[in-house]
Amino acid sequence: MTYDPKTFEPLRFHTATAAFRDGTDSPRDYLERCLETIEDREPIVRAWVLLNEEGARAQADASTERWRRGDPRSPIDGMPIGIKDLLETQDMPTQMGCAAFAGNFPRRDNAAVWALRQAGAVVLGKTVTTELGGPEPSPTTNPFDPRRTPGGSSSGSGAAVGARMVPATIATQTGGSLMRPASFNGVWGLKPSQGAINRGERQTASTTTHGVHAGSAEDMWLVAIAVASRAGGDPGRPALHGPAAPPPGRPPGTVAVIETEAWERLDPMSRSAFEQVVAQVEAAGVRVLRRTEDAVVERFERALVGATEIGSGILAWEHAWAFRDLAEARPDDFSDRVKRFFFDTAARLGPEGYEEALRDRAVLAAAYAALATRADAVVLPTSSGPAPIWTGDVPGEPPVRWPTGDPGFNFPSSLLGAPAVNVPLMAVGGMPFGLQVMGQPGTDARTVAIARWMGMDLEPVGV
Predict the structure, then answer these.
(1) Are 169 and 188 in contact (CB under 8 A)?
(2) Cα–Cα nearest to 275, from 435, 51, 445, 78
(3) Closest listed residue to residue 246, CA positions, set 70, 453, 439
(4) How many C-beta atoms lie closer than 10 Å to residue 248's C-beta?
(5) Is 371 helix (H, G, I), strand (E, B) or coil?
(6) CA dihedral sign, ordered 42, 45, 49, 55
(7) What sections of 107-216 are H helices per DSSP?
(8) Are 219 and 168 in contact (CB under 8 A)?
């Protein structure tokens, strides 16, 4: 299935609610159409760990009655939504893509899941994640080419939306787990400011955030604000703020083009597509700053050198402590890749190495803060090209580090705690390739507004 951003029609929910009000459609009928698509595409895409069809139908029926009475709980009342299987759900197991958690069923809702239920959303099922949200590939395939990865660790969340199974899913990111699948699967993705959406029990790493994959910018925002307005932010953190309706598109005055250390790994076709988008931004009257033209941008670029290793070390240290006891008790239930890149990396890093990584992160944050007076937003690719084909590790050699894709363009927003939006604006070789818009921490609504402008006013690019 070839992807073309000019013609691809994602599944939307916000456009269906008027028909819910006048009775020509209903949340139950909408759900049944989603289930038909899942039945058709799931055997190959494999985006779901499990579905709670009976429970979803009951939720959809209740929503249908609320819309019939003219009393929906929120704009997403009746929206079928998938939950990444790192987040607890009271009616479904939470197995984290890991053999050590097989059958794990805490019977409680993550804060975001609770908020979605309060908003009337239909919690349909659990989407596939990679093992503990780490680098081990999942069985999910890319909906546009089953030979290719959907990305990780929110593989099922991105693929379910890209395959038009549901209009939105909850995803998470620690390094690049939300943004890269958004790019690979041709969907909108919002990774909010650090702590802007209450993670509930998922307080395992300092860079982990909850976010949203969606077929449209409108549904993306409606889901995020519905959760944040009910569950708030992380302990000690302000929640995502902004209008109840999606922020209207707004062009920036100035943007900074950031290359990062992953720029040299960007293939020529993807670089060409990205530059065509940047040229359109400039032609629209937006001032574009680059490292060769601005000293502040250049200082930030220099600070970004090594960001992937810094972020990987912080992630490994913090995740290793979260799962250390279980890994020691049941070592055979963890993959060699997770052992190597979580536990072995953490052991090599040690407390001193971890603290050095935190100092490096602080330097990076200061360099990024200096950009606030220079640019309204930063633009960069969301991934190092379209989704790669994964053929497996080479026998007798160490496991490949990034089989679900290079996270080099994603670690900056995670380390900085900055909001980032994937705009599905490009295709390379018939596969999705995303544009990333990144703002300063706390500027989520403005960042979404700029991303919406780019998604609405710029011409999609295919190479």
Answers:
(1) no
(2) 435
(3) 453
(4) 11
(5) helix
(6) negative
(7) 111-118, 155-162, 179-185
(8) yes
**What are the beta bridge partners of residue 142?**
145
- 261 pLDDT band, cuts 50/70/90, is very high
CB 141 within 8 A of CB 150: yes
- Report CA dihedral (373, 379, 382, 386) to the nearest 10 degrees: -170
pLDDT in tens, 160-188: 999 999 999 999 999 999 999 999 999 99
Query: The tokens of 337 are what?
Result: 């890749």
Calculate mean pLDDT across residues 147-158: 98
| Overall average pLDDT of the 343-365 stretch | 97
Contacts of 13 (CB under 8 A, 6+ apart): 30, 76, 78, 79, 167, 168, 219, 222
41 beta partners: none
Please state the pTM of the whole predicted model: 0.98
The candidate with the shortest Cα–Cα distance to 424, out of 442, 437, 443, 408, is 437
Q: Is 390 helix (H, G, I), strand (E, B) or coil?
A: coil
- Are the C-beta atoms of 162 and 186 separated by less than 8 Å? yes
Q: What is Dmax (Cα atoms) for the chain? A: 64
As a residue count, the chain comes to 463
Asked whether residue 60 carries a pLDDT value surpassing 90, the answer given is yes
DSSP 8-state code for residue 347: H
Q: Are 178 and 171 in contact (CB under 8 A)?
A: yes
DSSP code string of 81-99: EEEETTS-BTTB---TT-G
Question: What is the distance between the alpha carbons of residues 318 and 405, in angstroms, rounded to a whole number?
Answer: 22
The tokens for 35 are 């289930």
Show Cβ contacts of residue 58 under 8 Å, excluding neighbours closer than 6 positions: none
**Is residue 210 within 8 Å of residue 197, measured between CB atoms?**
yes
